[in-house]
Design a protein that fits this description.
This protein is of the alpha+beta class and 337 residues long. It has 2 domains: 34-131 and 227-337, Ribosomal Protein S5, domain 2, CATH 3.30.230; 133-226, PDZ domain (Pdz3 Domain), CATH 2.30.42.10. 31% of the residues lie in helices and 29% in strands. The protein has 9 helices and 20 strands. Strands 7, 8, 9, 10, 11 and 14 form a 6-stranded antiparallel β-sheet that branches. Strands 2-4-16-19-20 form a 5-stranded mixed β-sheet, sandwiched between helices. A 3-stranded antiparallel β-sheet has the order 5-1-6. A hairpin with a 5-residue loop joins strand 17 (270-271) and strand 18 (277-278). Helix 4 runs parallel beside helix 6 and helix 7 (283-292) packs across helix 8. It is globular, with a radius of gyration of 23 Å.
Length: 337
């Protein structure tokens, strides 16, 4: 082989290798990454009619979200190239079979809109206003196409009971599955286009929590809410229900109550019309986001969420909460660092 031909061969090998490395570095895989975002103050995102902020300028209420994006092949195969605090997540945990990432984003925006209204109702009621808010059940936003529930449930159904138990909120629906095992059948009462009916659904095991029974649906609060004041909340492209707790805390603060007591308070949790605080996802990343913001405390739904947050908290104080009232009480009693 001549020197020129050898040079061309080596050049070709280097080019192919470089192309393969570039593909692995930049090309998207079928997995997703949950990446931390720094917690952000809620105050400039919330406007309340007649607002009169209380407290001082030292503290603030923060929300924290998670950046969900496709992982490159390099990030899928090499953990050390992933952003700090990121987690690799299988596609079917982010995008249920039969749907798209765009569908999931649209669902998240609808969940956010309902979360904003529910949070405002909880805060205004706490502030002494008369709020007409009647929970009407757990609204089915989406059904996983590969789950048995896909044969009997539809988007738009409103679940009002499990067995003999009334469930008028998403949190109550989740709690009703405490003693249910994967593979068990459950009888759901639901409302569909004005008609009340019962259906039997076979449960499956949660891909995120082994041993936990689910039916493979995403739900949000169906309610008739009439607010006495105009409340506007705008987080732009952020979706999902997990900012319900910080929304409610900040609305109350805007009305003149000293909620943060001079602390930088990061909070997360789905909030129910009764003030209950329910679990959320992406806790690891949200804990990193709270730490990046220099938070004094991080309010997290009690139970598994709080336990996970503590694993990544470092010196950050984690406060588990089950309700809006408990969150307010904890903030009042917790000294400023």
């Amino acid at each position: 082989m001549t020197r020129n031909r050898l040079s061309w061969l080596l050049w070709g090998i280097v080019t192919v290798a470089a192309a393969a490395i570039a593909f692995a570095w930049f090309a998207p895989s079928r997995s997703y990454l949950y990446v931390p975002n720094e917690a952000t103050p809620v105050g400039d995102k919330v406007t309340v009619e007649g607002e009169r902020p209380g407290g001082d300028d030292v503290g603030a209420i923060y929300y924290v979200d998670v950046n969900v994006r496709s992982a490159t092949w390099a990030e899928s195969l090499l953990p050390f190239v992933r952003p700090d605090g990121a987690s690799l997540v299988p596609r079917d945990q982010v995008v249920p079979p039969g749907s798209s990432f765009e569908d999931r984003r649209a669902e998240g925006f609808r969940e956010m809109a309902r979360s904003e209204q529910t949070a405002a109702a909880v805060a205004l009621r706490q502030a002494g206003y008369t709020v007409k808010a009647t929970p009407r059940g757990a609204l089915v936003d989406a059904v996983a196409s590969d789950a048995p529930a896909a044969k009997v449930l539809r988007s738009g159904d409103v679940i009002t009971g499990v067995g003999d138990t009334d469930v008028l909120t998403p949190i109550a629906l989740r709690q009703s599955f405490t003693d249910v095992r994967p593979g068990d059948d459950v009888v759901l009462r639901l409302r569909r286009k004005g008609t009340v009916k019962k259906v039997t659904v076979r449960t499956i095991e949660s891909p995120r929590e082994p041993g936990k029974a689910i039916i493979g649906i995403r739900v949000s609060q169906d309610a008739d809410i009439k607010l006495p004041l105009k409340v506007e909340i705008d987080l732009g492209a952020v979706g999902g229900p997990s900012a319900g707790l910080p929304f409610a805390l900040d609305v109350l603060q805007e009305l003149g109550t000293d909620v943060d007591h001079g602390k930088r308070v990061v909070a997360t949790g789905e909030i129910g019309l009764d003030g209950s605080v329910g679990p959320i996802g992406g806790v690891k990343q949200k804990t990193y986001g709270a730490r990046k913001a220099g938070a004094d405390v991080f309010l997290v739904p009690a139970g598994e969420n709080a336990a996970e947050a503590r694993r990544y908290a470092g010196n950050l104080r984690i406060i588990p909460v089950t309700s809006f009232q408990q969150a307010l009480s904890a903030l009042a009693k917790t000294p400023t660092n």
